[in-house]
Amino acid sequence: MPASVQLNHTIVQCRDNRVSAEFLAYILDLEVGREWGPFIPVTTENGVTLDFANIPAESIVPQHYAFLVPEEDFDGIFDRMKTTRVDWFADPHRMHPSEINHNDGGRGVYFIDPAGHAMEVITRPYGG
Fold first, then answer.
1. Sequential DSSP letters for 54-93
2. Pick the CATH number of 9-122 from 3.40.50.1000, 3.10.180.10, 1.10.10.10, 3.55.10.10
3. Confidence at residue 34, expressed as pLDDT on a 0 to 100 scale
4. Both ends of the chain: CA-CA distance in Å?
5. CA-closest candidate to residue 107, choices 83, 78, 87
6. Mean pLDDT, range 38-50, rounded to an integer
7. Which stretches make up the VOC domain (predicted)?
8. Could you report the per-residue pLDDT of 64-103, keeping only the tens digit for each?
9. pLDDT band at residue 53, thresholds of 50, 70 and 90?
10. For strand 118-122 and strand 108-112, is the pairing parallel, antiparallel, or unpaired?
């Protein structure tokens, strides 16, 4: 039987690791961890750490990060998104601005973080 594999951490490239880490932590109501070396960590409830690291802006390759959240937490997350005045979309191609999707019977939105990464919040996993 194969070993149990879990994602432990990933590095999130950004222009300003403090700004990007605090932005995501605020939206998702998470804690910003203690800076260590070039990283500022934000850890999700399932123990995965996003380590924000500064790199030159022209070197940032936009990535996609999706977060599964409980239905009861969605409204608070959505309210914090609106507080930051971030644009949101119902789809990854940004064709449906200011809308929420209801894929698989849940709710979901996409938004762009300060470094240009596509962030997604969903209440149901796809195919669920």
1. E--GGG----EEEEE--HHHHHHHHHHHHHTT--EESSTT
2. 3.10.180.10
3. 97
4. 26
5. 78
6. 97
7. 6-124
8. 999 999 999 999 999 999 999 999 999 999 999 999 999 9
9. very high
10. antiparallel
The CA distance from 117 to 67, in Å, is 13
Structural domain boundaries of the chain?
9-122
Phi then psi for 57, rounded to 5 degrees?
-50, -40
Is pTM, for the whole model, over 0.70? yes
The two structure tokens encoding residue 28 = 């998702």
What is the number of alpha carbons within 13 Å of residue 66 lying toward its C-beta? 11
Give me the chain's average pLDDT, please: 96
